[in-house]
Amino acid sequence: MKPKVAFFDFAGCEGCQLQVVNLEESILDLIDIVEVVSFREAMKEHSDDYDIAFIEGSIARPMDEERLRGIRSKAKILVALGACACMGGVNALRNQFPVNDLKKMVYGGADPKHIENNPYFDIFPVKAVDEVVKVDYYIPGCPINRDEFARVVTALVLGEKPVLPNYPVCVECKKRGNICVFEEGKFCLGPVTRAGCDAICPTNGDGCEGCRGLLDDPNTQSELEVLQKYGLTLDEALDRFNVFCYKAKAEVAKAEVAKAEVNK
Ligand code: SF4
Ligand code: SF4
Ligand code: SF4
């Protein structure tokens, strides 16, 4: 029996699901090994009987939490799909501001009777999926890399643990023979960001913005050395991480504190 697979979207742009739709001919290989029972972006049918749930988007409201817990209770395996689901993503930029200020800014012109006590507008600071339910596996990126998605699905069907690269984007960047963007006066989070995108941004002349999140054990010392070499500060790096990965700011800061403790 093929495992039944379902896709669910929360607060996000649906670009990660689009990457799955865009698998083109390799989607046929996937359909050979799984049965897709729910995928709003690609089909009308829906079933609540599934083994693997892919969650796209971040969690922004109490009603999202409730829906997510319901999905978790039905799924044997739950996979966070993309930066929004894995880390909060770009939506979490709003966590820097008080919720009431944001509501005023966005819905200020609306009739309060449509907003107050309406669960659709009852927002809280954005959460990653694993802040609400247990996540079994993560597929990072904004958007996800579709080949990596196919590899993860294949591993799950084979009963294997999907393995993500745990080396920095710099490795892929060097393999592609790129000139480091720091040499061109640009900024890059490649030294501490998980590889797997084939260093697509530096290859196209832009610094890495960290959309695949931190490595499991990021070499923050190496990032600091690179920053110092080019006259930049850790604060600038942390602010950049906020774009996709609000949790990283706390993690990098924690790593720095731990290091300082060891060096005392
Ligand atoms: S991770 Fe990026 S591409 Fe995926 S849903 Fe979020 S914003 Fe869209
Ligand atoms: S810092 Fe960025 S541009 Fe430089 S080698 Fe690393 S990934 Fe490439
Ligand atoms: S280079 Fe960095 S920002 Fe660009 S896709 Fe890869 S991880 Fe994301």
Short recap of the structure:
This protein has 264 residues and is of the alpha/beta class. It is built from 12 helices and 5 strands.
Provide an overview of this structure:
- It is a single chain.
- The protein is α/β, with parallel strands linked by helices.
- The chain is 40% helix and 9% strand.
- The protein is built from twelve helices and five strands.
- Strands 2-1-3-4-5 form a five-stranded parallel β-sheet.
- Helix 3 links the parallel strand 3 (52-56) and strand 4.
- The protein binds iron/sulfur cluster (3 copies).
- One iron/sulfur cluster is lined by residues 169-170, 173-174, 178, 180-182, 188, 190-191, 199, 202, 207-208.
Rg, please? 20 Å
Question: What is the total domain count?
Answer: 2
CATH superfamily of the largest domain: NADH:ubiquinone oxidoreductase-like, 20kDa subunit
Average pLDDT confidence is: 89
Distinct compounds present: iron/sulfur cluster
Largest sheet: 5 strands, parallel
Q: Percent helix among the residues?
A: 25-40%
Q: Write down the overall geometry.
A: globular
CATH architecture of the largest domain: 3-Layer(aba) Sandwich
| Low confidence ranges | none
How are strands sequenced across the largest beta sheet? 2-1-3-4-5
Number of strands: 5
Q: How far apart are the first and last residues' alpha carbons, in Å?
A: 58 Å
Number of helical segments with 4 or more residues: 12
Report the structural category: alpha/beta
Element-level helix/strand string: EHHEEHEHHHEHHHHHH
CATH class group of the largest domain: Alpha Beta
CATH topology of the largest domain: Rossmann fold
Beta-strand content: 5-15%
